[in-house]
Amino acid sequence: MNESLPLRELLIQGTYLVSSVFFIVGLRGLSSPEKARAGMGYAALGMLLAIVGTLLHAEIVRFEWLIGGLLIGTIIGVVIGRPLFISVPMTAMPQWVALSHAAGAVAATLVGINEYMILRPEIAAGTMAALGFEVLLGALTVTGSVMAFGKLQEILPGRPVTWPLLNVLNLLLLAVAVALLVVLMVNPVLSTAFWIMVAIAAGLGVLMVLPIGGADMPVVISLLNAYAGLSASAMGFALDNNLLIIVGALDGASGFLLSILMCKAMNRSFTNVLFGAFGAPAAAAPGTLADGREMRAITPDDAAVRLAYARLVVVVPGYGLAVAQAQHALRELTDLLEKRGVEVKYAIHPVAGRMPGHMNVLLAEANVPYDRLFDMEEVNGEFPRTDVALVIGANDVVNPAARTDSGSPIFGMPILDVDKAQSVMVLKRGKGAGFAGIENELFFDPRTFMLFGDAKASLTRLVSEVKSL
């Protein structure tokens, strides 16, 4: 039996190595829309190999609970992922992402707690540090992700909720949690200190996300993803598991890099996102600027004529498109325009929607060709020759105040240069402000026309009008 142990360990580590390669290739595939689906397949295969390798460990002598967990997890995954069982609209995808982060963090936290309870009498200082770091980040990610879910689902207020000295309280609680971890590294038998540390970490997750507004949720989600990855990596050190170390580091690093890119796209710092409330109330009544200018409405038949006889139409999708589930109607409209000889492009802002890549995923669901999607840097030069910029449910990412108003909360944020188009058509449910809580002067420009109503209904009407021309 002993002679088989080296072979078993070799097989486990070999499986982990191949699994890590699949995770890396899968992550690389997610960098482009064309390869994203294949990337997810590679990542899923990597996870399957990781599970198989783990089941080969000699320490596992009973498989009943493991098989039960695998079956339950598989059923839940199939139910969530297949529209045949349950349909998760694209507008709710960020909430599901937040919940998936919470689920992963719960697993990491429970593993850390279990290892502490088992090893507590004689746990080494280094192992205690890894376990403590894992539990701290894990518990914080659990409650933080649940809070993000609540804000995105509008169970909790989407606006920033703050009170005096909140940041001071958060820093003080973090210092206490770190101090308790140091105490546990010296004397791991003090279980009371351990449970207090876990409770503080869970409370920090609530207190850190509560003051963050809905406009910053894409950054929060990617940052929570980084926390979950780092927690998993720490768990790998505690369990001496190379795969967890590698995969956790990949997850943590990619999450942090994505958070940095998202902050750059909004021209904001990490500290500003985490410790600064974002948004301000509009100064005037909805649909009216302080100088008295009002939005100008357009009828669907006039809008259809402008689109049908344009040479270049640039579509700017936003969260409103996801809310209305209007991506298929949009695809039908753009297909009609292209048959009439209109050139159509899609302008994708990096923070449009409520999670990184939200618009790319939404349009991919409607089978919009990848070569029609253009990043902000690629498409901004096209707007001066654009006949109609069709803005659907986007607001802050096309607001010229980001360039002109130094007092605006979005000042300095790179935006799509929609205001440079020959004309702008905005599909909007109502006259309210965007997530930043400010009016958009673009909507009051003489070249801008507003088509009010549900985006799906408006696009469907436009399809009918274009067909009749």
Describe this structure in words.
This protein is an alpha/beta fold and 469 residues long. The chain has 17 helices and six strands. Helix 4 packs antiparallel against helix 5 and helix 13 runs parallel beside helix 17. About 2% of the residues have low confidence.
Write the layout of secondary structure elements.
Elements: H1 4-29, H2 33-55, H3 64-81, H4 93-119, H5 125-152, H6 166-186, H7 191-209, H8 217-239, H9 242-265, H10 270-275, H11 300-308, E1 312-317, H12 319-324, H13 327-339, E2 343-348, H14 358-365, E3 373-375, H15 376-379, E4 388-392, H16 401-404, E5 424-428, E6 448-452, H17 455-468
Parallel strand pairs: 1-2, 1-4, 2-3, 4-5, 5-6
Helix pairs in contact: 1-2, 1-9, 4-5, 4-8, 5-6, 5-7, 5-8, 6-7, 8-9, 11-17, 13-17
Beta fraction of the residues?
5-15%
Unreliable residue runs: 278-285
Q: How many H/I helical runs?
A: 17
Q: How many E-type strands?
A: 6
Find the structural class using helix and strand composition: alpha/beta
Helix content: 55-70%
- Any idea what the radius of gyration is? 25 Å
Strand order of the largest sheet: 3-2-1-4-5-6
Question: H/E element string?
Answer: HHHHHHHHHHHEHHEHEHEHEEH
| Global mean pLDDT | 82
Largest sheet: 6 strands, parallel
